[in-house]
Hints:
Blueprint: H1 2-20, E1 28-34, H2 41-52, E2 62-68, E3 71-74, E4 80-82, H3 83-86, E5 98-102, E6 106-111
Parallel strand pairs: 1-2
Antiparallel strand pairs: 1-6, 3-4, 3-5
Helix pairs in contact: 1-2
InterPro entries: HypA/HybF
Organism: Candidatus Taenaricola geysiri
GO molecular function: nickel cation binding; zinc ion binding
Amino acid sequence: MHELSIAKTLFEEARQMAFKLRIDRISRIKIKMGVASGIDIDMLKHSLIDHMFPESIAEDAQIEITLEPLIAKCKQCGNEITQVGISGGCPKCSSRELDIISGIKVVIEDVE
């Protein structure tokens, strides 16, 4: 269950953000998660709410998750490809040399 270790990292980032913003209680944590991150959203929420939040600065915090689409850029022609077309390579030039631009990371966007 790698969601627990990810939850620990995200929780620590949220605490650091709250400290910098001089927030005493976190009421909401906004997370941006790539659709290709491989993380189970329900397990991540469970890990945060049941294992990280109790008796902490974020005890009653709400979790808001925004999904980020998988987008790649073709190294050959520069075409941007969305998740639907990535598996077959670039639909414009057929190259399989792609750089992932977004859709694989998980980050804290904001804390309130």
